[in-house]
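Work Package 3 (structural annotation) set out to generate three-dimensional models for the target panel prioritized at the project kickoff. During this period the team completed the workflow that converts sequence records into C-alpha cells, so that structures can be stored uniformly alongside our sequence database. As a representative example, we reproduce one entry of 277 residues exactly as it appears in the project archive.
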Amino acid sequence: MDVKEGTDILQVRHVSYRYHGGIQGLSDVSLDIREGEIFAVIGSNGSGKSTLLHVMNGLTPPTSGTVLFRGKEVSESTLSDPHFNRAFRAGVGYIFQDSDVQLFCPTVLDELMFGPLQLGLGEQEAQRRATEILRMLEIGDLATRPSYMLSAGEKKRAAIGSVLTMNPQVLLLDEPTSGLDPRTQVYLVELIFALNEAGKTIVIATHDLSLVSELRCRVAVLSEEHTIEKTGEADELLYDEKLLLKVNLIHEHLHYHGSTAHRHIHSHYLFHQHDRR
C-alpha cells in the first residue's frame, strides 16, 4: 500500500534502557515508524531487539528517552489513564517470540475472544471477530483445542489471531519465523504482506536476513553496543558485508587449499564468496 510520507505512527526518541544491575540493553535509540509500512529491526542475539519492541509496546518503560504513539507519549503515567491505555492497547499489538508465553486460555477460541472482551466489547462481537479471524488464519478446526495440543505453527497462528481480533493498527512481531517449518514460514510472510495491504503497520525484530530480504522493507541495524548502527532499505543493507560483519550477523572463515588461503564469508542468507590471498 502507499505510505503517507512524513506520517509517523510510532516514534522512538533517544531511548536507553538498563536492566537491573545496570546492564545496558539499549543505548540512545531513535526510530520513526511510518504509518502503513513494514519495518524490520535486525541485530545479533543480545543486541536489544526484543527489548526495543517491549519498550515500543509499553511493556518495559525506558530508563531514558520517550516513545510516541500518534504523537502522544507512551509512559507509565499516560498508560495509567484508562482512555489512553485502552486506545494504545487496541492500537498496538505484540506477538511474542515464544507463543507459549502468549497463550493461556482454555481453548483457541477463548484466546481469540480474550482481547476484545478486555477492551469492553460484548461477547457477541468478540465471538464474531474470533470466528472471522479463525476463518482468515485457516484454524477453524482448532477452535476447541487447548494450546498444549497445537504444533509450533498452529500456536503461532493462534497467537497472531489473539492479537488480530483487537484489530490493532500496529503489529510488533518478535522473531516471527523462529522455530517454524518452511511451509509455515512461507505462510507467515504471505500473511504479513496481506495484513500490510489491509493497512496494518508491521514492525519485525529478527536476525533472519532471508525474511528481511523477502519483505524488502526499511531496516534498522542494531549493533552489539545496543544502538542503531545504520538505517536504510533492505536491498542496500543486506549486501553491505562490512556492516553485517561488524554487527555479527554474518561471520568470516579463513581456510587453506594447499598453500593458498581463502577468505570465506558465511551466512544463511548471502551466497558464499571466496577471495584469494
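Residues 122 and 273 are 58 Å apart (CA to CA).
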